[in-house]
Amino acid sequence: MTNYNLKSGNQLSPSSIRIWRIVQVLLLFVGAGFLFGLIFYPDIGLQVFWNVFITIVPAFLVIAVGLWRNICPMASLSLFPRHIGISKKKKLTDTQSGKLNLIAIVALLVLVPLRHAIFDMNGLATALLIISLGVISIIAGYLYDWKSAWCSSLCPVYPIEKLYGLKSTFSLPNAHCDECHRCVTPCPDTTPEINPLSSKKTTYHKISGFLTVAALPGFIWGWFQVPAYPGTIGMQELFAIYKLPILGLLVSCMLYLVMKRFFQERVLISIFSATAVSCYYWFRLPALFGFGMSPETGTLIDLTAVLPEWSMTLLVISTALFFFWWIVFNKQNKNPWVIRPVYADKVA
Which range marks the domain in which residue 333 is found? Predict the structure, then answer.
């Protein structure tokens, strides 16, 4: 078990640090394996990446977002320049941080619909997307201090982490930061009950937080109403893959503004968080087993000849009830994602 001292912050023993580093390196090799499969064995690579890995990630973020923050391969890439001492360690201004937050959620909303037309069917395109994000994460870590530019600003998964990670199961030691340099405030890793609207320093923070909370349930619903568009992509296909997600986004935002009059902000955030992840699995789980509208891209194993359709209804209802209990009604889990390490200025 990892050893740390709650009184003095995140004090990992050398053996514990080695264990975390080994896990982080192993996950980087897993990521390299994904890229190899996507490029050279696209049929297998696409199945494993989209239908296994990406399907698991949302639930993982709900249950153990702190663990994900410690072992995420993109985070390890971004923090590598800092760990080897070549990062320029620039500080982001509040305005810069807010702009990067907004870019992250917009990038998510732009990239996800392209799965229907490109990424779900094209292993090379998916690999190039992952490589591009990896290069950007390294550049962000090289230029700016610790997690400020990538993990806590620009990463397209970061908005999802804040939305789904409202109720952390437990707090882990920080496996990247041995000291806290206040690279971003509030720190998403160590602030209990962090949410997308926790930071309202600039208009950019407010807009990005609003889009993350209010837009995603409707956007996810709309995304699952769009079929796959294999083959040549033109303006007509692009319009088709964005139309329903954007329509769902707008309806969801309007609903949020109406409900804001009747619910406290934190309660409303938890409701929309649970709705978003429940909506994802409501459509994703049946599709995974062959009951979806696009079986050519969304099926991991076809069980339509084995399982009755009502079993999928029971599965998705049970899953939704669990997420609403966990995120909205469960009052026990109010832990930060990870334990804050000692402040660097106090060490100095």
Answer: 14-341
Encoding tokens for residue 77? 């890439």
How far apart CA 195 and CA 188 sit, in angstroms, is: 8
Residue 2: inside a domain, yes or no? no
Q: Can you say whether the dihedral through the CA atoms of 115, 116, 117, 120 is positive or negative?
A: positive
Tokens 């206040």: give the residue.
182
Residue 8 is assigned to a structural domain of this protein: no
User: Over the stretch 173-230, which tens digit does the pLDDT of each residue have?
Assistant: 999 988 888 898 889 999 988 999 998 889 999 999 999 999 999 999 999 999 888 8
Q: Is residue 250 one of the residues assigned to a domain?
A: yes
Query: What is the rounded (10 degree) CA torsion for 195, 196, 200, 201?
Result: 100
Q: In terms of Cα–Cα distance, which of 110, 109, 194, 210 is closest to 152? A: 194
Written as one string, the DSSP assignment of 281-321 is HHHHHHHHTT-SS-HHHH-SS--TTTS-HHHHHHHHHHHHH
Element (H, E) at 159: helix 158-164
**Which helix (DSSP H) or strand (DSSP E) does residue 6 occupy?**
none
Share of the chain above pLDDT 70, in %: 94
What is the length of the chain?
Answer: 348
Number of folded domains in the chain? Answer: 1
Cα–Cα distance for residue pair 161/60, rounded to 1 Å = 10
Its pTM stands at 0.92
d(CA 216, CA 227): 19
CA angle 21–23–27, rounded 5-degree value: 115
Contact assessment for residue 164 and residue 273, using Cβ atoms and an 8 Å cutoff: yes
Q: Collect all residues with Cβ–Cβ distance below 8 Å to 243 and sequence separation of at least 6.
A: 222, 226
By the 8 A CB rule, do 237 and 252 touch? no
